[in-house]
Amino acid sequence: MSDFDVIIVGGGGAGLAAAIMARRAGASVMVLEADTKLGGATALSAAVMFAGGTSVQKARGIEDTPDAMYRYLMTLAAHETDPRITRIMSDESGPALEWLISLGVEFPADYLLCSGVEEVPRGHPSLGVAPALVNAAGAEGVETALGTRVDRLLIENGRVVGVEAGGEELRADAVIITTGGFGNSPEMIAQWYPTAARHGDWTYAVHMDAPFILGDGITLGQQAHAEIVGKDSGLLLPTSGLGKWIEAFLPPWIMLVNEQGRRFMNEASPYAVSGYQINAQAGGHAFAVYDHVALEEGSQDMRFADPYHSGTAMPTWEYNLLTKAAADGRIQKADTVAELAALVGVPVEGLEAAIARYNADCDAGADGQFFKQMPRRFPVRTAPFYAREVRASVIGQTGAGLNIDGQARVLDEQGDPIPGLYAAGEVLGCTVGKRYAGGGMGICNAMVFGRLAGAEAANAALSVREPA
Length: 468
Ligand SMILES: Cc1cc2nc3c(=O)[nH]c(=O)nc-3n(C[C@H](O)[C@H](O)[C@H](O)COP(=O)(O)OP(=O)(O)OC[C@H]3O[C@@H](n4cnc5c(N)ncnc54)[C@H](O)[C@@H]3O)c2cc1C
What we know:
Elements: E1 4-9, H1 13-24, E2 29-32, H2 40-44, E3 48-50, H3 55-59, H4 66-76, H5 83-102, E4 123-125, H6 130-140, E5 143-145, E6 152-156, E7 159-165, E8 168-177, H7 186-192, H8 194-197, E9 204-205, H9 216-223, E10 228-229, E11 234-239, E12 255-257, H10 274-279, E13 286-291, H11 292-298, H12 302-305, H13 319-327, E14 332-334, H14 337-344, H15 348-364, E15 385-398, E16 401-402, E17 409-411, E18 417-423, H16 441-464
Parallel strand pairs: 1-2, 1-8, 2-5, 8-18, 9-15
Antiparallel strand pairs: 3-4, 6-7, 7-8, 10-16, 11-15, 12-13, 13-15, 14-15, 17-18
Helix pairs in contact: 1-6, 1-16, 4-5, 5-16, 14-15
Bound molecules: flavin-adenine dinucleotide.
């Protein structure tokens, strides 16, 4: 006898979406959540959702289709991602977004933006996703147990038949793992995200206020011989490392150079590409170079300091912090470019040549090398000159995890579905692919596969339910 038709491990975005869908299909549902509150990283997020072919885009006169989104995701990943999963994500992102609207989530059409390098805007900022999911789950009669960290799957004859948390067993016809990523576990990062681990003390996750984002779903899946895929994929955001804050952008008023003193990217690139560009440089790092005018005027200009219109400046590039860090030596400061190059340890001729070219472009009003667009340009010309090391080391999303089929069933090491086991959200290793495609892909993933897993698990559970 089962205690519930469906048990969901993790009450974040994917778990709640799955719970609502399973209840609406007629299943009894229990959500087990390790934290003392529901929401997980979803509740902490900026709640931007990536989606194609939506009513919000239409309201802005933007033509878009799931096919176009599919082509974008596959191309950006250089086809090194699972086309079945990408197809589902592209086809179901629009319906998932409309479903959230039906639950009361607001996606103001004015906020729509290109959150990656897509040709039409697919980043849908919202006024918050998690509260609507929590309310809807309550209204549908989803049961929840907080402070309940699941540590074991119950497995009988190869079938998952329930879970164990702190010695208590609960049985179900279907179990859905929605435990999120592993950004708060140094051990998991070392094993599954070595590009992040190599930055040592510079590495932390934006999930820091969600204490159970520890990769439990990977460990639970492995108990049932689940295949773990997507090693070393995810999203690494750039930072000056001057503090542990959540931010995603480099300020466009800096000039970024590598160990050779060469410029190598558009400093205003979105995070769908910037972190990968920095990590591809020798030493996996770069140096932000700027002058007195850029510090005084660029860092205090909110057009550059707050690209997502949050009302606050990016904390690690904020004027007072930069000034203090220059005074206490965490930022290098020099009266000449040659002196600065020596302090940073980059070749003097290389840096001087790069700055000469950059300044000429600034004077001409166009970036001839990397086409950086900005309303005002800041040459590196007026002493004192500054340099600060930059790394893309802040985990925005982890990409390794469980593999699923088109019905959200977890696959084992042979590629076969594990009976009774489903998964959705950031715990999946098959959704990110080579590159995080743009702001909103985390919520897209959680909503699309959460909804799918909930519906599929409920159907499977109800089909084996004994007649009353
Ligand atoms: C600050 C921040 C900003 C972000 N901004 C965006 C954004 O704007 N757009 C976007 O697309 N993505 C964003 N992301 C990423 C996105 O929020 C996540 O990828 C997504 O919400 C993950 O949803 P999920 O349901 O898979 O996991 P979560 O929402 O993290 O839920 C997982 C839940 O499982 C629980 N759990 C873990 N282990 C166990 C266990 N053993 N037993 C029981 N419960 C367990 C956790 O406590 C947690 O509540 C952001 C993330 C953060 C942290």
